[in-house]
């Protein structure tokens, strides 16, 4: 009888342990999505395997290739210990003691808790192994010298854990943890100085990343999100589309598709609460887009011809749009010139539970001069005529991240 009871206790303990392990893996999957790991560690090709790395991360100093983080023991992180994983995430030090470049956001992940890091590690251990060696970085000298990162860290990196602010609400603190740590929003939405460090005085005020203009997330009413309603922000983070405000494009479309759309409404609301409370940062000459200002009398015949040939069938002759194609007044015409050009060059392929936003790429159909003319026509007609661009700038954008 005692032996049977002992066996039953062991079986129950094993079942409980297995349930706890499964729960931790599920929690880790959620955290990995919130951390945006898939969008950087998955190459762009249709045959690419999730988390197998190989994607170039453009920087002003050259390209850094995201590594393989599948469970493969030779080319991935399958042979890493938990301690090595935590050190890489928090300190930017790889398995063999090599310094990691801050294209990997350890400068934000340093805030993460032990429990969350171990849960992320547990989930990544379940990702099927893919044998795929990481390409060599293409950084120019002296930025290819990893030992210099020790000096960079002394100047630009402050290792620390997240400490809740007792004077703030639980919702604010959760939002701070997600925005500043796990979601590392500031890594793209904060300008960087000459050596690649984040500029604290312009935190979350918008920045240029691989040619894309990441928006101002501060509550400034003109340059930032101050005029957005909470439901508009929630919809944008959940679906990538806030009609009349903006549509997620480029890297942000990937963030939505692989990350924020999977977060709980409570976590998304906490991020909004936190962003509402950060100091507003105004932008010089920023102004609200007004579709009533659209110039419908333009005599730019070449721009009008290109628009009629490539855009009007979906977006309407006057940019009014029709479902599922968004209007260009405000949503498209007010986009930064570089964003508009990159959309024309690369198209849109944003998949969410809400919809599949799809637009073909025109990089092969149009020359740099034609894309500049078309982009300037769209901004002149439907947005801010100051947001002009020339063929040389288009040529530079064409090769970024390729």
Automatic annotation (TrEMBL):
GO terms for molecular function: electron transfer activity; heme binding; iron ion binding; oxidoreductase activity, acting on CH-OH group of donors. The keyword Metal-binding applies. It is found in: Cell membrane. Heme c 3 binds at residues 311, 314-315. SUPFAM superfamilies: Cytochrome c (SSF46626). Pfam families: Cytochrom_C, Cytochrome_CBB3. GO terms for cellular component: plasma membrane. The keyword Iron applies. Binds 3 heme c groups covalently per subunit. Residues 23-128, 170-279, 298-382 form the Cytochrome c domain. Heme c 2 binds at residues 185, 188-189. Residues 1-21 form the signal peptide. This is Gluconate 2-dehydrogenase. It comes from Caballeronia zhejiangensis.
């Amino acid at each position: 009888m005692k032996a049977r009871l002992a066996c039953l206790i062991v079986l129950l303990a094993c079942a409980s342990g297995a349930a706890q392990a499964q729960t931790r893996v599920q929690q880790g999957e959620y955290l990995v999505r919130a951390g945006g790991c898939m969008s950087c560690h998955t190459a762009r090709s249709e045959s690419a395997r999730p988390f197998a790395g190989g994607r170039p991360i453009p920087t002003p100093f050259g390209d850094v290739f995201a590594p393989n983080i599948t469970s493969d023991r030779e080319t991935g992180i399958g042979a890493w210990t938990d301690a090595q994983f935590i050190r890489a995430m928090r300190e930017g030090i790889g398995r063999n003691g090599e310094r990691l470049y801050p294209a990997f956001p350890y400068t934000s992940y340093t805030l993460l808790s032990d429990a969350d890091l171990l849960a992320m590690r547990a989930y990544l251990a379940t990702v099927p192994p893919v044998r795929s060696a990481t390409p060599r970085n293409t950084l120019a000298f002296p930025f290819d010298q990893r030992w210099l990162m020790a000096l960079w860290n002394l100047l630009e990196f402050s290792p620390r854990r997240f400490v809740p602010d007792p004077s703030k609400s639980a919702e604010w603190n959760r939002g701070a943890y997600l925005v500043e740590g796990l979601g590392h929003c500031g890594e793209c939405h904060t300008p960087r100085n000459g050596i690649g460090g984040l500029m604290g005085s312009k935190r979350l005020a918008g920045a240029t990343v691989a040619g894309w203009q990441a928006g101002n997330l501060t509550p400034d009413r003109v340059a930032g999100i101050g005029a957005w309603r909470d439901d508009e922000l929630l919809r944008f983070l959940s679906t990538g589309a806030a009609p009349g405000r903006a549509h997620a494009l480029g890297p942000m479309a990937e963030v939505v598709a692989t990350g924020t759309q999977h977060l709980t409404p409570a976590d998304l609301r906490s991020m909004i609460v936190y962003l509402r409370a950060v100091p507003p940062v105004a932008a010089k000459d920023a102004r609200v887009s007004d579709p009533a200002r659209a110039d419908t009398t333009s005599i730019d015949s070449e721009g009008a011809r290109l628009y009629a040939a490539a855009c009007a069938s979906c977006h309407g002759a006057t940019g009014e749009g029709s479902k599922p194609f968004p209007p260009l007044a405000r949503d498209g015409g007010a986009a930064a010139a570089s964003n508009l050009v990159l959309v024309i060059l690369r198209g849109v392929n944003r998949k969410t539970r809400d919809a599949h936003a799809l637009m073909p790429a025109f990089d092969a159909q149009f020359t740099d001069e034609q894309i500049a003319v078309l982009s300037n026509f769209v901004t002149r007609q439907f947005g801010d005529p100051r947001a002009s661009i020339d063929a040389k700038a288009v040529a530079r954008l064409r090769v970024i991240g390729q």
